[in-house]
Amino acid sequence: MLYWAAVFFIIAIIAAIFGFGGIAAGAASIAKILFVVFIILFVLSLIFGGIRRGPRP
């Protein structure tokens, strides 16, 4: 998912360079959403991964 966020970010940068404001804004917003979803899933996997293992001796 982080890969797709980076891809949309690069598309947004290229579109902004060529002056396609609407496409750049759309790609940037998709990149932001994917990045936030990635961060949320990453934090949840850290929390639940720590809970599954239990305390260390």
TrEMBL record:
Protein origin, superkingdom: Bacteria
TM spans (from-to): 7-27, 33-51
Keywords: Cell membrane, Membrane, Transmembrane, Transmembrane helix
rRNA-binding keyword on record: no
HAMAP family reported in the protein's UniProt record: UPF0391
Family per similarity comment: Belongs to the UPF0391 family.
Name this polypeptide is given: UPF0391 membrane protein ISP15_05415
